[in-house]
UniProtKB/TrEMBL annotation:
It is found in: Cell membrane; Membrane. Its EC number is 3.4.-.-. The lineage of its organism: Eukaryota, Metazoa, Chordata, Craniata, Vertebrata. One of its GO terms (biological process) is negative regulation of Wnt signaling pathway. CDD domains: Tiki (cd14789). It comes from Colius striatus. This is Metalloprotease TIKI.
Amino acid sequence: QQSKLNSFLWTIKRDPPSYFFGTIHVPYTRVWDFVPENSKKAFQQSHIVYFELDLTNPYTTSALTSCQLLPQGENLQDVLPHDIYRRLKQHLEYVKLMMPSWMTPDQRGKGLYADYLFNAIAGNWERKRPVWVMLMVNSLTEVDIKSRGVPVLDLYLAQEAERLMKQTGAVEKVEEQCHPLNGLNSSQV
């Protein structure tokens, strides 16, 4: 069965070989059993691993948070049509109300509280640019909430690389991810 899976692994034939592995931003537990052994083996044998972004670097996290914010003094209410803003606010109130029932016993056992989780995901939403709010809302589903606390595949691999004392790096800077999204006009968003 494993041999039939698409590995999203490309080999660059050189000595030693290099590998290019395509990942997706989902909790690793959703896909890990479907990552073929050749990909896992390539990761284990590699001494240097580069990721899209260095998700283990606190600067990366901070810069990603900052880039999502509207310019100083602006709020989402100022840039969204009134009806959309009102519907968004109602939806976020609904999510906040539902979130305790969406959480798993395992999450609660780890000390994860619904209010904390909601604030971690949606905190400061009124200061975010519309494109980032759209992405945030897309991640506020019961399925996504149940998997919170589980790292996405990229972060899981980065944490594993760090644990295995592999040399790590990033191929992109936060700005290279942030500026294109922030450059979308309101009709595109």
